[in-house]
Automatic annotation (TrEMBL):
Entries under HAMAP family matching the protein: ubiX_pad
Protein name: Flavin prenyltransferase PAD1, mitochondrial
Binding, dimethylallyl phosphate: 190, 206
Enzyme Commission designation: 2.5.1.129
Chief localization: mitochondrion
Compositional bias segments (type: Low complexity): 7-17
Gene Ontology terms: cellular component: mitochondrion
Ranges for domain Flavoprotein: 41-209
Residues that hold FMN according to the record: 48-50, 74, 125-128, 160
Catalytic activity: dimethylallyl phosphate + FMNH2 = prenylated FMNH2 + phosphate
InterPro entries cross-referenced by the UniProt entry: Flavin_trans-like (IPR036551), Flavoprotein (IPR003382), UbiX-like (IPR004507)
SUPFAM superfamilies registered for this protein in UniProt: Homo-oligomeric flavin-containing Cys decarboxylases, HFCD
Annotated localization: Mitochondrion
Length: 226
């Protein structure tokens, strides 16, 4: 009796019921037929900072790469989309697989138990950066970013502001220390772009490189051209 207590079981091993043939068959079936691989899943959040086209191009690229997207738009992101681009917010939402209201704190992406492969905030305002830095989860963007950090998942913040104050720089440093990646969309002049679209494509391609996704939409550096 004492042996059974210290072994953590009240049933002697000799009297335990062996697996039935049905259980063995089910186990073998699971091994031979594993569940289909889940599509990669990335959260895309857009704030009201300038650079709405970057978020739109990210959604387009992820759609082409067959990545499941969960989109969150702030109120000012919708205003910036209409002001800076030829898109309407409804067109942008149509690019995503799932769209969540920024005030819906019960959305799946607000929980760490909901499996995702990361999040990109593009563009990311200084207000959103500050909220993420302090863990002030007052909306779905900052809450989901907080989830990414606590679950040790990839979080990319495409920060849009210039010049930068000490407050901005401190916030960037602290979220970097917490595991996020700051990605200012700095134009790559070395590609000798023929226009703004090529510069945007290069930035979007480099952003998605951080998720091990290759858009194939830009020329990579291969040394000086002869």
């Amino acid at each position: 009796m004492l042996d059974s207590i210290f072994s953590g079981s009240s049933t002697p091993s000799s009297t335990r019921t062996p697996p039935s043939p049905t259980d063995m068959d089910a186990h073998q079936s699971r091994l031979a037929n594993p569940p289909p691989a889940r599509r990669r899943r990335i959260v895309v959040a857009m704030t009201g900072a300038t650079g709405a086209i970057l978020g739109i191009k990210v959604l387009i690229a992820l759609r082409r790469l067959n990545v499941e997207t969960h989109l969150v738009l702030s109120k000012w992101a919708e205003a910036t989309i209409k002001y800076e681009t030829d898109y309407h917010p409804s067109n942008v939402k149509a690019l995503a697989d799932h769209v969540h209201n920024i005030n819906d704190m019960a959305a799946p992406i607000a929980s760490g138990s909901y499996r995702t492969d990361g999040m990109i905030v593009v563009p990311c305002s200084m207000k959103s950066l500050a909220a993420i830095h302090t863990g002030f989860c007052d909306d779905l963007i900052s809450r989901t970013a907080d989830v990414m950090l606590k679950e040790r998942r990839r979080l990319v913040l495409v920060t849009r502001e210039t010049p930068l104050s000490e407050i901005h720089l401190r916030n960037m440093l602290e979220v970097t220390r917490a595991g996020a990646i700051i990605f200012p969309p700095v134009p790559a002049f070395y590609i000798k772009a023929g226009g703004l679209e090529e510069l945007v494509d290069q930035s979007v391609g480099r952003m998605l490189d951080l998720f091990d996704l290759d858009t194939g939409d830009f020329e990579r550096w291969n040394g000086w051209e002869k």
